[in-house]
Amino acid sequence: MGNKDIELGKNEVRAFLFEIIDRMSESQMRQLLNELEERQQKERRSCRRKDFPTTVDYSVADRYYRDFIQNISERGVFIKTTKTFSKGQKTLMTFMSPDYQKPFKIKGEIVRIHPDGVGVAFNIESEALRTSLKSLINMIQSD
Question: What residue ranges do the domains of the chain occupy?
Fold first, then answer.
């Protein structure tokens, strides 16, 4: 848009956006929607994610899977997968900590669907688990 930023009011910007969207193919619109949803998700995150490439064994609807965790925060993980799931599905995950002392077993709920995988929010049932999880996050902190 460039110089039009200064010239256009909110309604004009909205109309211009709709004109652009109307000229897009369905796949382009879906891609734009995914990008906007991701942008909103990043802006809403209250916990920083850490890269945590590790194997995760998990079950969803009484079926078992093995994939990789891409990143982790105190609130959840992103599992890189090509499997198809739905928002709201419950899961039980097991993965090793970097020190290999003991595996983490943690319940979660699928809260985000992405072409590359799923975002899973942890269902933390005890303060001991919360403390262990915080310790894990601190251990893998790489910034």
Answer: 4-44, 50-140
Q: What CATH number was assigned to the domain covering residues 50-140?
A: 2.40.10.220
Q: b/e for 2-25, b at 16 or more Cβ within 10 A? A: eeeeeeeeeeeeeeeeeeeeeeee
pTM, entire model = 0.66
- What 3-state class would DSSP assign to 84? coil
For residue range 98-108, list pLDDT tens digits in order. 776 788 899 99
**Average pLDDT in the 15-41 region?**
86
Residues 6+ apart with CB under 8 A from 61: 89
Q: Is the torsion defined by CA of 133, 87, 69, 30 positive or negative?
A: negative
